[in-house]
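Proteins fold reproducibly. Consider a sample protein:
=====
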Amino acid sequence: MCWPRWGVTSVTLSKLSFRNAKRQARDYLVYFATVVMAAALLYAFNGLLFSQELRTLSKSMELLPLMLALASAAVVCVFGWLVAYATKFMLLCRGRELGTYLLIGLENRQVSRLFFLENLAVGGCALLLGMALGGLLYQAFRAIALTLFGLPYRFAFVFSLPALGLTAAYFALIYLHALRRSRKYICKAKIHDLIYVEKQNEGVVIQTGKKRRWIFAASIALGVVGTFLLMVGGSLPGIAGAGCLVVFMFGIFLSFASGVPAFFDKRPARKYRGQNLLVFRTLTAKLATMGVLMAVISLIFTATLISEGAGLVFRGLFSGRAAESACFDLYVDMAGDDRDPTPYLDYIQENIPVEQSVLYQVRLSENGQVQDYINSRVLYENDGYEQDPVLRYSDYAALRAIAGYQPVELEEGQYLFHCMAYLEDTLKGYGQPVALNGVTLEPGGVCTGHLAQNSGNGRGYILVVPDEAAEGLPVHHLAYAAQTAQPVSSEAYDGLIAVMDKIWAGTGFGDEITAKAQAEAEVAAQTAITVFPLYYLALALTMTAATILTIQQLSESERYRRQFALLQKLGMSRREMSKALRTQFAIYYALPALPPVLVGAPVLLRLAHAPEPGVMVGLSSPAVIVASSLAVFFLIYAVYILLAYTSLKRSVLPDKL
């Protein structure tokens, strides 16, 4: 019996659309929650984009809107792909239902409108919920930004109409593009096409089993070679290694369905051990038709890891350099050995309240024996120093006091090393005496701590010697350090820069002037304009890829339910079925995540080792950066895995007898 075409009203379609939208949000809860989170992220970062408060924190923050706009463009593309994929996937899963609507008398355009309205309803609800959550996320990001600048956070309700409008425009663009393609397909589809559309799978790219097994083995070999090339370092090996690993990803997933059976055919004892046959037969059957998708998801995860790690590398680079160069409230490094510091001192006396200061000379020893020793043992850059740098003990004691360090005693007839942390172990092993002005000094210990040693007080290290031993040594440069009564203001700092420009007018050269307050503000701004967009992109990539994996897995619920019902009749216990499901689940989610670890970890190690020695230390050391990036990635990934496993286990495993 068919409905008369005139009997299907707009009200009927609207009610049906609303009912289907509720069912869709329930059945694809992970997808709906991800779209809500996408709306929240877009709104929160659009709020930062239009925030006048954040722009006034630093001059460098003027670049934040540009960086966020570029990141948002990438994120919109990522979420657009997610919505387009999910919409198409739901169309495939519901093809029988939509074909039935045609069979009972609805027109193609009515079915198309029905599908359009229900997805638009889901997107609209997600947008509204996302706006509410986005307001909270914006407050969190605002608090982080203010904390970076050392400012107190106070909650203040902020409603940004431009951010709301831009987010709505993004969502309209994403959903209308995805639904336009679905509408076009439904309008042209025949009843047969829709009813059997769910049986359409990804085509098998590699046709013969023998060829797939050969590619499977070759892909593993390329993975090993690519990882090795990335660890070797260098531009050409790095590019070649990355290329090998990309081929490895596509090759391994396109050939997985043949590689695993070939492995078990040669080891029949393992095939029938426990639930291996059930797990891998079900897994390979699914992966045989989604190899390209798994490879793309693996590449997305690789980009995620690199984005997260790059954010940590930049953060460590900015803070590491600033911690060393801005260890004094005010520091002026004057090039040359015959400089007149009077213009600087006069300006400081008039404009900057100073509590304690020292004007001193950095001298050079008679040779570079310590430098040669360091060069033979660690990676070291000695820019600007051909001999070992030397500092009088009285000047060193004053610098320690200004920097807030405890006093250090220098025994008669000895010298000290003050160095950056990465040289401490090396210099502790140096036991040679140093001869200065005919006086031989023995090593007396090694001190560490930030002391402007990235260029000013030596390059990574300096020898601290008795005052009389330093007399007559050639002067490398003059320097001034001060502890101020209050942080140096932007106006005072700019005035000091103006003094320097006047001194060096027309020469193209200048001195190094550092104020702790300005350096900290610069680090905060650099962190905000690099780390925020990178983590924004990384979070979007992780959510998108994990959601697609989860949708694919949950779509098999009915087949799993029939499978486990049959296994229960054959005598398999619920405990064994649960174990088989867990194993299959773990392998399914681990497969696209393992190649990114092989690719991302070496890339991040090379990236973290790229800055000059002594910068990436402590919590910013290469090993910590790699571990932190992996931890953040797998933490987010684990949330999706747990949600999917809980949902699937509850719906497919038979009830206990």
About this structure: The beta strands are 330-335, 354-364, 389-392, 414-419, 434-436, 439-448, 461-465, 475-484, 512-515. Residues 320 and 616 are 7 Å apart (CA to CA). The two ends are 42 Å apart (CA to CA).
